[in-house]
Amino acid sequence: MTQERTGVATFKGNPITLVGPELKAGDSAPPFTVSKNLLEDASLTDYAGKIKLISVVPSLDTGVCDAQTRRFNSEAAGLGDDVVILTISTDLPFAQARWCGAAGIDSVITLSDHKEVSFGQAYGVLIKEFRLDMRSIFVVDKNDTLAYVEYLGEMAEHPDYEAAISAVKALL
């Protein structure tokens, strides 16, 4: 049975239900399968040996998600080759590619959770009512342990960018 958490998050003040566990720093990063494109999948093991900043957004085509992805794209250059920034949403892979091209995003990897919402369920960010992933941040160390976790209480708010970047830098 899949765990559901209610009363922990809202969308414009209205309660939403998150599906999956609430993870904490120190937990092992759960495995997941997402789409790189329509024919190729990606998983946590594809980024083995790297520090992973996982930026989760509901949809790249919204203002806060756009700003969040642009911010981490601009921060990427200062983090070095040991760090990979993954942006995960339920947008279709070709919509993600179109958006990245139009926005000039070239330093983050966009991955789609649209097929099985594997990431959303494993990380406790799947929004039951919308079949979108809730805005959140996960920093995963080189050994696939969660070093930083931020679940936002309100879907339309920005994450704590500085805290996420500091968590990455602490692992370097």
TrEMBL record:
Could you say which enzyme class this protein belongs to?
Answer: oxidoreductase
This chain belongs to which protein, by name? Thiol peroxidase
Instruction: Report quaternary structure and partners.
Output: Homodimer.
Q: Which GO molecular function entries does the Swiss-Prot or TrEMBL record give? A: peroxidase activity
The record describes the protein's role as: Thiol-specific peroxidase that catalyzes the reduction of hydrogen peroxide and organic hydroperoxides to water and alcohols, respectively. Plays a role in cell protection against oxidative stress by detoxifying peroxides.
Q: Name one Pfam family in it.
A: Redoxin
Catalytic residues (UniProt): 65 (cysteine sulfenic acid (-soh) intermediate)
Query: Any idea of its EC number?
Result: 1.11.1.24
What family name appears in the similarity comment? Belongs to the peroxiredoxin family. Tpx subfamily.
State the Gene3D superfamilies in the record.
Answer: Glutaredoxin
Q: Which InterPro entries match?
A: Redoxin, Thioredoxin-like_sf, Thioredoxin_domain, TPX, Tpx_CS, Tpx_Peroxidase_subfamily
The record's catalysed reaction(s) read: a hydroperoxide + [thioredoxin]-dithiol = an alcohol + [thioredoxin]-disulfide + H2O
Q: Does the keyword Oxidoreductase apply?
A: yes
Task: Write down the superkingdom of origin.
Answer: Bacteria
Which keywords annotate this record?
A: Antioxidant, Disulfide bond, Oxidoreductase, Peroxidase, Redox-active center
Q: Which residues form the Thioredoxin domain?
A: 23-172
